[in-house]
């Protein structure tokens, strides 16, 4: 991956939790030659639990906002990660030549009585998958201290 930018696009339904967590973790752990974005089918506000879960591990995402899928970013991606089953069914077709991965992470905010523990659990699952992804593509900062 030397000198060439590697583009990762994390997608989920609302871009308020899972894809935001994945984007923040990937930005934290990836080498400088990686461009990382996230988006949703139907963007809504970042959930306060999402912000708090990331602050607990030392990553500040208070300035982030929910975004709708941008086809220019989509088409220039090296890999597209779909974090939920809903996005798999409704997402634009990923063109040949772009890696397409489905993670199927349960939405920790789907139920009305969602808790911080639900979000922490999703965050921790996403963290392991992000680190594995970055390692697989050789763009993981190996000297990075674990959060």
UniProtKB/TrEMBL annotation:
Pfam families xref list: LMWPc
Membrane-crossing residue ranges in chain numbering: none
Enzyme class at the top of the EC tree: oxidoreductase
Keyword Oxidoreductase: yes
Gene Ontology molecular-function annotations: arsenate reductase (thioredoxin) activity
SUPFAM superfamilies: Phosphotyrosine protein phosphatases I
Source species, domain of life: Bacteria
EC number(s) reported in the record: 1.20.4.4
Record flagged with keyword Oxidoreductase: yes
Domain Phosphotyrosine protein phosphatase I: 6-136
Cross-referenced CDD domains: LMWP_ArsC
Keywords: Arsenical resistance, Oxidoreductase
Protein name: Arsenate reductase ArsC
Organism of provenance: Paenibacillus solisilvae
């Amino acid at each position: 991956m030397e000198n060439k930018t590697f583009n990762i696009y994390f997608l989920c339904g609302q871009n308020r939790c899972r894809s935001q967590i994945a984007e923040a973790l990937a930005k934290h752990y990836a080498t400088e030659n990686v461009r990382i974005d996230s988006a949703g089918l139907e963007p809504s506000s970042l959930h306060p639990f999402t912000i708090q879960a990331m602050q607990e591990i030392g990553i500040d995402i208070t300035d982030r906002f929910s975004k709708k899928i941008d086809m220019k970013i989509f088409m220039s991606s090296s890999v597209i990660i779909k974090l939920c089953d809903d996005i798999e069914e409704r997402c634009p077709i990923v063109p040949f030549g772009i890696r397409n991965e489905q993670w199927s992470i349960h939405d920790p905010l789907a139920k009305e009585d969602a808790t911080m523990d639900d979000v922490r659990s999703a965050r921790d699952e996403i963290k392991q998958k992000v680190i594995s992804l970055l390692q697989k593509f050789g763009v993981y900062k190996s000297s990075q201290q674990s959060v």
